[in-house]
From TrEMBL:
<dbReference type="InterPro" id="IPR002347">
    <property type="entry name" value="SDR_fam"/>
</dbReference>
<dbReference type="Pfam" id="PF13561">
    <property type="entry name" value="adh_short_C2"/>
</dbReference>
<comment type="similarity">
    <text>Belongs to the short-chain dehydrogenases/reductases (SDR) family.</text>
</comment>
<protein>
    <recommendedName>
        <fullName>(-)-isopiperitenol/(-)-carveol dehydrogenase, mitochondrial-like</fullName>
    </recommendedName>
</protein>
<dbReference type="InterPro" id="IPR036291">
    <property type="entry name" value="NAD(P)-bd_dom_sf"/>
</dbReference>
Length: 267
């Protein structure tokens, strides 16, 4: 008897890396990957204590493990990918999710380049390094892998402030579209998800709010969406990532999957 589609684990036997996996969308996605049969989920982050705690709660060294990785350092990214392949013999999925938000309301007229360069080192160069080295490992291992990047609705619109952040997410989308064309010959798919505002620790920090105020974040941005009665959670973004990471999307590449309750469509 064939297995029911409802019971099928979509990542059975797969090895995945999740950067920025210690909290927020990364954490929720790492758990979802494990629940969908991933043989190993490598959680990569700079929050060592938290990352180790998450990996242990999922299943330390049986289903999940943690490795320190600052994605702004290409050598650390390369070492993370090599370590994963050496220990688990393959890399099937890279969820390049680590990122930061603009710390100021910068416009082009007051653009501070040291801050700009710090943000780009993580959001753009770091993401490019993850795609580069994951793809290299997949090509070398003859793996028809899936690479998913976290972009943002900021990749598809402009704003009156936070120009450095909006620029960085436009760059992510451009990289995904180009990399998908370059890696398709190897059977490697490259896509991204573009969420609207989700009350993650990163978002709360950027807004100067604490965890108890998560519901307030939803109220702040509620007027800008068209789909009501459906509060956007990290789980919704993780579900989109799972779709792009799994064989359910085996013919999807170069795609920007927007998860925004209709924000962009109404803009």
């Amino acid at each position: 008897m064939s297995e029911s589609p409802m019971c099928r684990k979509k990542l059975e036997g797969k090895v995945a890396i999740v950067t920025g996996g210690a909290s927020g969308i990364g954490e929720v996605t790492a758990r979802l990957f494990a629940n969908n049969g991933a043989r190993m989920v490598v959680i990569a982050d700079i929050q060592d204590e938290l990352g180790q705690k998450i990996a242990k709660s999922i299943g330390w060294n049986s289903t999940a493990t943690y490795i320190h990785c600052d994605v702004s350092d290409e050598e650390q990214v390369k070492a993370m990918v090599e370590w994963t392949v050496q220990n688990y013999k393959q890399l099937d999925i890279m969820f390049s999710n680590a990122g930061v938000y603009s710390k100021s309301n910068q416009t082009i007229l007051d653009l501070d380049f040291p801050s700009f360069e710090h943000l780009f080192a993580i959001n753009v160069r770091g993401m490019a390094a993850c795609v580069k080295h994951a793809a290299s490992a997949m090509v070398e291992g003859h793996v028809r892998g899936s690479i998913v990047c976290t972009a943002s609705v900021a990749a598809s619109c402009g704003a009156k402030k936070h120009i450095d952040y909006f620029m960085s997410k436009h760059a992510v989308l451009g990289m995904v579209r180009s990399a998908s064309k370059q890696l398709g010959v190897h059977g490697i798919r490259v896509n991204c998800v573009s969420p609207y505002v989700v009350a993650t620790p990163l978002t709360l920090q950027a807004l100067g709010m604490d965890a108890e105020q998560a519901e307030e974040v939803e109220k702040i941005f509620e007027p800008y969406v068209v789909l009501k009665e459906a509060l956007l959670k990290a789980k919704h973004v993780a579900d989109a990532v799972l779709f792009l990471a799994s064989d359910d999307s085996e013919c999807v590449t170069g795609h920007n999957l927007v998860v925004d309750r209709g924000y962009l469509g109404a803009s």
